[in-house]
Design brief:
Number of strands: 12
Strand order of the largest sheet: 4-11-10-9-8-7-6-5
Helix content: 40-55%
Structural class: alpha/beta
CATH class: Alpha Beta
Protein name: L-lactate oxidase
Strand content: 5-15%
Pfam families: FMN_dh
GO molecular function, one term: FMN binding
Order of helices and strands: HHEEEEHHEHEHEHHEHEHEHEHE
CATH topology: TIM Barrel
Catalytic activity: (S)-lactate + O2 = pyruvate + H2O2
Family: Belongs to the FMN-dependent alpha-hydroxy acid dehydrogenase family.
Distance between the termini: 36 Å
Largest sheet: 8 strands, parallel
Shape: globular
Number of domains: 1
Number of helices: 12
Oligomer: single chain
Length: 338
Amino acid sequence: MNYNDMLKEARTCMGDHCKACNICNGIVCKNAIPGPGAKGVGDTAIRNYQKWQEIRLNMDTIHENHPVNTSFKIFGKKFKYPFFAGPVGAVDFHYSDKYDDLSYNNILVKACAENGIAAFTGDGINPKIMEYAADAIKAVEGIGVPTVKPWNLETVHEKMRLVNKSDAFAVAMDIDAAGLPFLKNMTPPAGSKTVEELREISKMIKVPFIIKGIMTVKGALKAKEAGASAIVVSNHGGRVLDQCPATAEVLEEIVDAVGGSMKIFVDGGIRSGTDIFKALAMGADAVLIARPFVTAVYGGGEEGVKCYIEKLGAELADTMEMCGAFTLDDITRDMIRK
């Protein structure tokens, strides 16, 4: 299976809302919710993608010829590439019933672990979703990151009991999901968290805690104060607040504020190995990619995921070589132009 074959097959089974576009840039699906679109007019998802495309590469091929090493280490684990599959929930609601969250996570977690990266798994109202995600991660010796929604603390505590049994090498909370309507309708309501609440949550976990949904320096400093080991610069793919800046627009200032004191991931519109290179050049330690991995699963199951990972990895290695970077540590800001 090649990438085009995977896309072609995905178009037969993705449902009415996602068109499995050649480039997942948010334009066709725009504000299609249910579906992969963004909130409001859909501007934020489109902007996420476009801002990465505005950053250009500084080619330099006057250097010694060395093999490129894309390997990446974090929290005691070594990965083949510095990118991960992002968490996606309610796939049968937003895409089609070919998969539900349980079967989707089982395929994604296994395929990512076998091909040198890790998957962040989603969460949902059904407690079985986290239970099965934890089981899938445990089955691959902890190579996965369960992502817990910002439920009320009682529910979070229950979820963390499952998470701690998974042997996951890290645990995340997507606090930007506070903008999802179904969380606000809970009793007691779920949603935003204080620094003190996040610190309490981090103490429930035996492994590094990742806070996803940071879009400002102020937010990054709060996450650091709460005891997070890492953050994900993310606006939830534009799905929780319209008219946000793109993640590429805020990444550097967040890196300048907290880089070196905690790990920094970024997501939002990153679609190629070239985009991954740009994010690393701006100071990110690694990136997350979500929607295209849904397409990969629907289009080819484990083989589709493998195909997409290999495509991204080859693009990243080629970009590194053409810009004179032979390890991830060699990638610097002067290799891009904004």
